[in-house]
Amino acid sequence: MPVGIITGASKGLGRALAEALAARGWDLVLDARGAGALKEAAHGVAGHSTRVEALAGDVTDAGHRAALVAAARELGGADLLVSNASALGAEPLVRLAELPVEGLRRALEVNVVAALGLVREALPLLRESPAGTVIAVSSDAAAEAYATWGGYGASKAALDQLAAVLGVEEPGLRVWAVDPGDMATELYTAAVPGDDDPRPAPAMVVPAFLRLLDERPASGRYTAPALLEER
Question: Which of 227, 125, 127, 214 is nearest to 177 (CA)?
Answer without folding.
Answer: 227
